[in-house]
Amino acid sequence: MNKDAVILIAEDDPGHVELVKRNLWRSCVANDILQFKDGQEVLDFLFRRGRRAKCEEKGRYLLLLDIRMPRVDGQEVLRQMKEDEELRKIPVIILTTTDEASEVERYYEMGCSFYMIKPADYNKFMEAVENLGAFLSLDWVRVPQIDGAGRC
Questions:
Q1: Contact 94, 39 (CB under 8 A)
Q2: Which of 50, 57, 66, 113 would be 91's cystine partner, CB 3.0–4.6 Å?
Q3: Whole-angstrom Cα distance, residue 25 to residue 5?
Q4: Which helix (H) or strand (E) holds 64?
Q5: What does residue 77 show for φ and ψ, rounded to 5 degrees?
Q6: Which is it for strands 114-117 and 92-96: parallel, antiparallel or unpaired?
Q7: CA dihedral 129, 82, 102, 94 (to 10 degrees)
Q8: Domain boundaries in the chain?
Q9: How far is the C-alpha of 77 from the C-alpha of 53, rounded, in Å?
Q10: Does residue 46 contact residue 55 with C-beta atoms inside 8 Å?
Q11: Would you give the end-to-end CA distance of the chain in angstroms?
């Protein structure tokens, strides 16, 4: 993946965040990682609102998005991103425990790039994230640049 791409993790479970970060690094993903505890935080970052750090006007981002989060859920985050001309370019990987076929189909229809189910078993979850990291660490995986023109 582009070395300058920033990985955004929107996940309310701090244990899952640490597992994801640790296993991405084990898979040689050396990109910067920013974490957000809910959908509102990641939307504020992307749309350049609030006091917290804001995304660069020109940059490369990849979002790992949980569906079930407080304040604003993953579905609303994805909807708002895909309605924005620039933010829709950001690849979104849904990373969630929900495995219902109708849910999976709906998120692909909404524009997610990939839907990954978090296994309940700790070791299988670690293995799944390591595999994701192995994919992301490939040189031929490219993340498009966005031109935020004032928002992100």
A1: no
A2: 113
A3: 14
A4: strand 58-65
A5: -60, -50
A6: parallel
A7: 10
A8: 6-137
A9: 18
A10: yes
A11: 20
71 contacts 38 by C-beta, under 8 angstroms: yes
The predicted structure's pLDDT at residue 74: 95
| Number of Cβ within a 10 Å radius of residue 31 | 19
Q: What is the largest CA-CA distance in the chain?
A: 43
Token duo for residue 25:
């690094």
| Cβ neighbour number for residue 53 with a 10 Å cutoff | 10
CB 107 within 8 A of CB 114: no
Helix (H) or strand (E) holding 61, with range, is strand 58-65
| Spatial CA neighbour of 95 closest among 116, 69, 125, 76 | 116
For the chain, how big is the Rg over CA atoms in Å?
14
Please tell me whether residue 29 adopts helix, strand or coil conformation: coil
Residue with tokens 């995304």: 55
Name the CATH topology of 6-137.
Rossmann fold (3.40.50)
pLDDT in tens, the chain (152 residues): 888 999 999 999 999 999 899 889 888 898 999 999 999 999 999 998 877 777 787 889 999 999 999 999 999 999 999 999 999 999 999 999 888 999 999 999 999 999 999 888 989 988 998 899 988 888 778 898 888 644 55
